[in-house]
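Why this split exists: single-chain examples teach little about how molecules sit against one another. For that reason, every record in the complexes split bundles all components of an assembly together and asks for one structure covering all of them. Below is a record exactly as it appears in the raw files.
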Amino acid sequence: MAIYPKSEGERRITAHALLDWVTRIFEECGMGEEDAALLGDTLVAADMRGIHSHGVLRVPDYVKKLQVEGVNPRGRPEVVRDRGAALVVDGGNSMGQIGSHFAMSKAIARARELGVAAATVRGSNHCGAMFYYTLQAVREGMIGIATTNALPTMAPWGGTDKIVGINPLSVAIPAGVESPVVLDTAFSYSSHGKIRIYHQKGVEIPSNWAFDAEGQPTTDAARALEGLLQPIGEFKGVGLAIVFGMLASMLGGAAYGTELGNMVDGPAAGQDGHLFVAMDVAAFEDAERFRERVDGAVRQIRESRRVEGVEKLYAPGGLEAEIEAEYRRDGIPLNEATWRGLEELYTLR
Amino acid sequence: MAIYPKSEGERRITAHALLDWVTRIFEECGMGEEDAALLGDTLVAADMRGIHSHGVLRVPDYVKKLQVEGVNPRGRPEVVRDRGAALVVDGGNSMGQIGSHFAMSKAIARARELGVAAATVRGSNHCGAMFYYTLQAVREGMIGIATTNALPTMAPWGGTDKIVGINPLSVAIPAGVESPVVLDTAFSYSSHGKIRIYHQKGVEIPSNWAFDAEGQPTTDAARALEGLLQPIGEFKGVGLAIVFGMLASMLGGAAYGTELGNMVDGPAAGQDGHLFVAMDVAAFEDAERFRERVDGAVRQIRESRRVEGVEKLYAPGGLEAEIEAEYRRDGIPLNEATWRGLEELYTLR
């Protein structure tokens, strides 16, 4: 997960109050109460796990999507193709979170019957952090897999044209007494948002984060913003991004890569695509035994030897679970800019 | 894919003759004709795509597995659990390729009915390059996904204990007139085999390939061999390795990570695990339209702008398809050591 610089003037708020706040904002944009609360919950859940880049920081952008950019606040997802373990959902140009939650719910229900099911989503929009949907599956005793198409910010390996998205992937696996194993990662080293923060602060970025417009590694944040994000593992990461982007978009008939738009003009409304897979552990293996073995692997990581200076080791999602426990106790910290962004939209009374 | 230094004294052989050669070697180890030919085909197919690390170079190791290390040359895979789209295969301690091919065939047949199906394999052994199985799905108009557990060579991020495998993943996607998109990648930057070659030649390795035993990056190949492989994308790559390793092993009840063994003693026979998923494109989308869109994305990559000095850009699997066309015409080049290794086992007459 992303580690953010500790910000001055942060204020804490309970998850409950924050959810209430953002739900009202989305209701004022014309969303129904249930959808507004679901959208709010996806954002608060991200903040709650310390993934503030995908938290309520996004609310002003999302309001713009609903009010200016053509996303339908009353859009309704529906299953438009249904064959055994394969489902296609049309999001009806709803907020991406609405169609994604719907699609994963359908995949889970079908996996309950058939052991495994996959639901693609088209007619959708930005759907936030993917872990939200894979944890839906985990709560039902299933493995969740989720991937989405993203606006292109990378080039093919050796190229300079921005035609590949960082197309995130989440895989979540139920544990027993330990927190579930939750991977949620894009296939770039960093993100535009993080590079923008370095640019504002006037500090250099690590040399593996970005390429300049000619495809050469750069530590200059300004040149990076005009250039390309670097994939993880060179050709490997961009290859992963390409295949998961195709699965997330083409399989359900959604826009892929440059078809979705670009980072300057933003995405075309209602063209985005995602893929959700649920695998019922109990269909394959004794669920109890499985959970115990996941617990064992999580503990093995935690108890293994550390590089000098490293305080603690985590399985994927372990650090976020720790943050969640802290924030549940002490409240979620929001920085001044995020707080002001929300207040400009709706003042807490 | 891996680029190997051009070797002196390489000899070319047709795929047909090479397959015949290695098939006889495996028959002499007690394998049935059909299984021996299948195992041989998986190796020749890897050489054919330029992936010599997973080609017939492995034959002496595989013979040792069959003759000394306890793999059953007559082992028969069978479906031991069958629920809708979820299948569990026990490899019966056969060579990993036998159970893997069997499992993907079963997943494909089930996906033909249900759109999507997944087959886990336990009771198995090293199964070679994963692309072989994902291309099985592609030939049936399906998307193939394959992942396997591997002996641990990495540490959790920030750790020094060798407890995570590089757990490769392959995803293959059918195209129309273009070659299929075929990703096949491990989640490490490099491999033990490649570092050994650098060590033999006495040259330094890139600083992102390995850590020394204390978990510090090293360019010294000898220290690297005593140390750890570096994951791609730091915590991201090792996280990917962890979740795909769990899916490949725990879901089907196979050994995970250190349970399988270590790099010194090798894997325990008949404990390995893999996962194969088939997704029938036609269950989700008009197959013709899908293939045309994949073609379009492949062409977009090929025709996009290149970094100065780069000659050509490829979609995943594109370079391998080019190599395959060349080798089909001119024969497969084998270096002297590989050729000798085969001749020691069985002399071509």
